[in-house]
Specification:
seven-stranded mixed sheet, alpha+beta, 389 residues, globular, Butyryl-CoA Dehydrogenase, subunit A, domain 3, 50% helix, 11 helices, 11 strands, Butyryl-Coa Dehydrogenase, subunit A, domain 1, Butyryl-CoA Dehydrogenase, subunit A, domain 2
Length: 389
Amino acid sequence: MSHDFLEVDDLLTDEDRAIRDTVRDFAQSELAPHVAEWYDEGTLPEDLGKLFGKLGLLGMHLEGHGCAGTSATAYGVACRELEAIDSGLRSFVSVQGSLAMFAIHRWGSEEQKAEWLPRMATGDAIGCFGLTEPDAGSDPGSMKTRARQDGSDWVLNGSKMWITNGTFADVAIVWARVEGRGADEGIRGFVVPTDTPGFTAQKIQRKLSLRASVTAELAFDDLRLPADAVFPEVRGLKGPLSCLNEARYGIAWGVVGAARTCLEESLVYTMAREQFGKPLASFQLTQRKLAMMTVAVSNASLVAWRLGALKDAGTLTPAHVSYAKYANARAALDVAREARTTLGGAGITLDHSVMRHMNNLETVVTYEGTEEMHLLSVASELTGIRAFR
């Protein structure tokens, strides 16, 4: 069962629907049977990247250098079907394609593209994206990681926090402030092979959310890079923020999948579970919950579809993405919480997916832009007044 009350998928092209079906079948057969175990153990299988690469999911919306060059909508649909299983799985694909690969594709030199993108598209090389720091989340311009020139080389010192795929990445995209430069224009991006001396990655333990995802802290101790490791043109926050905009687009689609799964599980459970001699779904208050969840999922589906249409038309703005990331992530979390209540005590176990999704979505509403920042982005578009630097 895949719940689409307003038949939003009828708005997709035949190619988009074919990609949807391929990813959905793969996700249900290869991922769904194992995800509760991965979540419980706080790990992911080492060959997952190659499985995603074989399916053509890594950097699928990029063109050239071995990337599939699909529509933005098709990429969104793929994110939705992955997150219907778990947010951590969509995060893996999102970080690889929309952050690490997009950064190289958009800002890298031809040599950097040729070296990394074909291997990243197949999953033979995994990437991560180093922007967030322990003291620089919503305000990335205050980053403390520094880069200085030493002859023709670059030397990096500092650390990054909450980095998805960090411990098994082959390459890290690291953003650092160039010493001696002022304000944002001093921020540069570097392509850093993770076997470079001075690079370390430590897995973050004891997470209560996104456990089927590997998160790390990166550290750079006099890490020396050649001159051609830096992105040649882009300076300032324009670079990393353009990448985040790509990833947030995928999130706006992905969370629809998580919400849809929660609704479907709630509907199945309440139809089968009997209390007072009749199914839970026959009680008015339960029916209200089911109806409200359906409205929320359907509305989020429409927002995601419209976002895809705008992106494919080349008219998508960062404010559009902020609108969708805020609205859909919040709606998905509300649906997951409501679905959890319909399952009662059974809903807190890994035998069901609703609380796993709920815990994951507690992170999704925060990462790659908190709700506050996205609302301020929308308000800035409305008023022309920036309420933050």
